[in-house]
Write a structure and sequence with these properties.
By secondary structure, the protein is an alpha+beta fold. The protein is built from 11 helices and 49 strands. Helix content is about 15%, strand content about 35%. The longest helix is centred in the middle third of the chain and has 20 residues. Bound molecules: beta-D-galactopyranose. Beta-D-galactopyranose (GAL) binds next to loops.
Length: about 800
């Protein structure tokens, strides 16, 4: 039987390479001990020279093998090392690997000893080596040198299964609860063996749903194809998974067993949209980079999973694009579990290098497809370098390879120009045409012609970079731009969907981003804390009520104290708004401006509402005139059109409207300038029932809040990380967006803060990452800031 041993603890690291490290007598004990995932350099949050992420370093790990390894195959698997590395065992060089995004392995059998310690040594070079994808041209993201994904030792029988590939297909005629399951399990054979047998089981929990035997082909692969009945499909709203188990037997003795999670589903991209299990699904989502503050790529399982959860649960996304490379197994596995579709692509950025670059791209493609073959969430393979020019021969090869390895999934390739030669099944296009006051997207036919399935894979991004600290109007504008594009994607079935740029802000090279080496393109910041644009996505979901009041309605935020439109992102049928308890009105989603969205926002030109009429202070005619004047003032301030100015003059001259009275009306109905504290109550209704309430206003209170993503931390095979979110709130439950208070986090033994501590809030909130240090049990972290009462967060480390 195979056994898998995580190899992530007890490494030693030196931030250089010296010849003496290769001497068998060299003792690495004096070097600092580290755990994998590891980044060679902890980076500042921003304002740093990206060269620091391109270091060279040497990793040492001594290990012993037990008796169980005798006469077995020993494989060492690396899940991701940035960017190139050389691997030695007991002084013997096993080879070099180039490229930081795909897993690779070495067979250590012939160089390992089972009766004494072995030395695994890895020299890692993070240099952005030309012709190792994505490098050669400029790249708008950073890679971060280090062994940044997990390492494991596999101990296998000499004869074992190399892999398990499962795929499902619809029956003809289509049946919801039946599918054809095809299995391939290539065999590695030590010698000619007869009497080998391989069984396949489909397990639903502990219950065996189906069992059968596989056949061995002439090229040493076990295969089988089975018609399964009463199968529940994997779908985005109900991502049911089964386990497929193959067992290799030699005369009833088990030699090997592989278990893979699998979801039965069918997909197709057509010129009229994307279908999942024969149901059309609009693919709305975001692009994701795998980088984080301070540690770059080196985040263990929980944070990878959390990103999938943020995308699916917090933002309601249906799809993510793993821009621009293969991403972590933990992320993809979580996407399977929670019904988040995935477009996964090969590494690269606009640049196609020489023959070596192309060969490595093909190797990347093969590794990605083989490694992630069984994940039901993956619906598209990206087989072109992001935004690269056409290259007929190269892309014929990538497409052919993808189809040879996996004929069950369509291919795509991401472009930034029209009428590209489309050798893929889906034309993917980064549509940055929306600039605020024009159509959300260009028509697919203009880019790709009328026939080919079409998907937008980026929009917004650099067209409208937005920081969490930007003025409210700018942040709302970013949100409205995302909305406009999504609305356009819903407008026609020609669009399979639209994936926005991007989930989170990210560090980048000097050629891109702001002066601080950050691209502020995210709908969340680098800690994945939401900007208003995040609620654009969240408010399209159905399962829970969402109501985010994007406008603060505080006049001091706006030039000339002129309040802009009042914007609410919600999936409620309508909202009621009250001012200090007095009802202003009932308001509905703006279907006129966003006719195609499932849930358009509610946008009010002003918050005057029915109050003036209801007060019956003035005659009906005068009320009408006053309202027009007030609305003109709300919209244009003192720059209102001349006609409106004349109306006001008329009111003042003939209706006794003194400046004081006008000021009182403006204060009461518009800007609350110079008035008492005001509270607006916004209540959302679904099916005429109040389901959610938000308050906004100028509260004088400050409340420090801190939440942890997880209260139970369960490290598996290595250390684990959880995020805490700290924010300063006003007394109404809203983030104090102008707060930059200093925050300190003190951890008990068992947890440690990653990166700087103390930190300052950025735009009212901040994330802090805590990593486990090896101790198990109950541990607390205490968050303090100035004279706010401290907050204790309790964790159980399993
Ligand atoms: C695209 C590119 C992305 C990112 C984005 C910024 O052209 O594919 O990687 O740079 O622009 O908006």
């Amino acid at each position: 039987m195979r056994s898998i041993h995580p190899l992530n603890h007890q490494w030693h690291f030196s931030p250089e390479f010296r010849e003496e490290y290769l001497e068998p007598t060299f003792s690495a004990d004096e070097l600092p001990e580290i755990q994998i995932p590891h980044t060679m350099t902890l980076t500042p949050f921003n304002h740093f020279d990206e060269k620091i992420t391109q270091g060279i370093g040497t990793y040492f790990r001594d290990f012993s093998l037990g008796k169980e390894a005798v006469d077995h195959r020993i494989i060492c698997r690396f899940y991701g090392v940035m960017n190139t590395c050389k691997v030695y065992v007991n002084g013997v060089c096993l080879g070099s690997h180039e490229g930081g995004y795909t897993p690779f392995e070495y067979d250590l059998t012939s160089v390992c000893l089972t009766d004494r310690q072995n030395r695994l040594l890895v020299i890692v070079d993070g240099a952005e080596t030309a012709n190792v994808p994505p490098f050669g041209g400029v790249v708008d993201y950073l890679s971060y040198s280090g062994i940044y994904r997990e390492v494991e030792l596999q101990i296998l029988e000499q004869t074992h299964l190399q892999a398990l590939y499962c795929k499902a297909a619809d029956l003809t005629p289509w049946a919801e609860d039946s599918m054809v399951l095809s299995i391939q399990a290539p065999l590695v054979k030590a010698m000619d063996m007869t009497d080998l047998k391989c069984t396949m089981e489909v397990l639903d929990g502990d219950v065996c749903h189906y069992k059968s035997e596989l056949k061995l082909t002439a090229n040493d692969t076990f295969i089988g194809s089975f018609q399964l009945k009463e199968i529940k499909r994997w779908d985005i709203d109900d991502p049911k998974q089964y386990r497929i188990r193959v067992t290799l037997l030699l005369r009833e003795i088990c030699l090997d067993q592989i278990d893979e999670w699998f979801g039965f589903r069918s997909i197709s991209f057509t010129s009229k949209g994307f279908y999942l299990n024969q149901r059309r699904v609009k693919l709305i989502g975001l692009d994701r980079h795998q980088s984080y503050p301070y540690v770059g790529y080196a985040m263990p399982r929980r944070m990878q999973e959390k990103d999938a959860e943020i995308l699916r649960f917090d933002l309601g996304c249906r799809i993510v694009r793993t821009s621009h490379y293969m991403q972590s197994d933990h992320f993809i596995r979580r996407a399977d579990e929670i019904g988040l579709l995935v477009l996964e692509e090969i590494p690269g950025w606009q640049y196609i290098g020489n023959e070596k670059f192309k060969a490595l791209s093909l190797a990347n493609l093969e590794a990605m497809i083989r490694h992630h073959y069984n994940h039901p969430s993956i619906v598209l393979w990206g087989v072109r370098i992001n935004e690269s020019p056409d290259d007929h021969d190269f892309y014929v090869e990538t497409n052919q390879l993808a189809k040879k390895l996996d004929d069950s999934r369509p291919t795509t390739g991401i472009r930034n120009f029209r009428h590209s030669e489309c050798l893929e099944d889906v034309y993917a296009y980064n549509d940055f045409s929306h600039i605020g006051d024009n159509a959300g997207l260009v028509h697919p036919n203009w880019i790709a012609g009328p026939k080919v399935p079409y998907l937008v894979t980026e929009h917004n991004g650099h067209i409208f970079p937005t920081k969490k600290t930007d003025p409210e109007m700018k942040q709302i504008e970013q949100a409205l731009r995302h909305l406009k594009v999504i609305d356009a994607a819903y407008a026609t079935n020609r669009h399979s969907g639209a994936i926005g740029w991007c989930l989170a802000d990210y560090n980048t090279h000097k050629e891109f981003g702001s002066s601080d080496r950050v691209c502020y393109h995210g709908v969340t910041d680098m800690f994945r804390l939401p900007k208003p644009a995040a609620y654009v996505y969240a408010s399209q979901r159905e399962d829970v009520p969402v109501l985010e009041v994007a406008s603060s309605n505080t006049p001091g935020e706006f030039d000339e104290i002129r309040l802009p439109e009042f914007v609410i992102f919600t999936n409620c049928d309508y909202v009621t708004i009250a001012f200090n308890g007095e009802k202003i009105g009932t308001y509905f989603p703006n279907r006129k401006r966003y006719p195609h969205l499932p849930h358009p926002p509610i946008i009010l030109p002003d918050l005057i509402g029915n109050r003036l009429e209801a007060s019956k202070t003035f005659s009906k005619r005068l009320t009408r005139q006053l309202l027009r004047a007030l609305r003109a003032y709300y919209r244009d301030g003192i720059h209102m059109p001349i006609g409106e100015k004349i109306r006001i003059a008329w009111l003042m001259l003939f209706k006794g409207f003194t400046f004081d009275k006008a000021f009182h009306l403006i204060g009461r109905y518009i800007i609350n300038w110079g008035k008492d504290l005001a509270t607006y109550t916004i209540q959302g209704y679904r099916e005429n029932q109040p389901v959610i309430t938000k308050l906004i206003g100028r509260s004088g209170t400050r409340i420090l809040k801190a939440f942890a993503d997880d209260s139970v931390i369960a490290p598996k095979g290595t250390y684990e990380v959880t995020r805490i979110v700290i924010q300063l709130e006003d007394g109404l439950g809203n983030i104090c967006r102008n707060a930059h208070d200093v925050i300190n986090v003190t951890c008990e033994n068992g947890l440690a803060v990653i990166g700087p501590n103390p930190v300052a809030l950025v735009g009212g909130s901040i994330g802090v990452y805590l990593r486990t240090t090896g101790k198990k049990g109950r541990v607390s972290a205490i968050v303090t800031s100035g004279d706010c009462p401290p907050i204790t967060l309790d964790f159980l480390i399993e």
